[in-house]
Design goal:
Number of strands: 2
Pfam families: MarR_2
Domain HTH marR-type: 5-134
Radius of gyration: 17 Å
Low-confidence stretches: 141-145
Keywords: DNA-binding, Transcription, Transcription regulation
Protein name: MarR family transcriptional regulator
Distance between the termini: 33 Å
Length: 145
Amino acid sequence: MSAHQEDLLGQLSKVARLVKRDIDVALAPFSLHTGQWALIKAVAILEPVSQVALSKYLVIEKPAVTKTVTRLETLGFISRTGSGRKRTVTLTRQAHDIFEAMDQAVQAAHQRFLETLSNDEQQMMGSILTHLLATHRPDEQEELH
């Protein structure tokens, strides 16, 4: 790996940490953090959904999904039904009731973060990130669609 490539990926990691920090601030009024929000948002998109599918969709390990789902279930955001491989996850009424407010807070944080980029720069960045995701996790993408 060249020094330029290493620097590029290092910068990408730093940007991801900054975005996470801003989203955590936006989610503080809901007593949630970025990882929990990512899971809630994924469930909202995919529900009903298995924990295995969530793991693949979010590109995180199954034990981390189980831990986060359990915590969100305790907080009243997630409900699990069924058992074994048939077990699915859905949002509770409480989560549905405040989902829009949470999503708006996160979207506002996204807008503030990206406001210095033109629409063309945002589209270019989106295309590059989509390409990287498709290249490095094609199996997960196919299983979800």
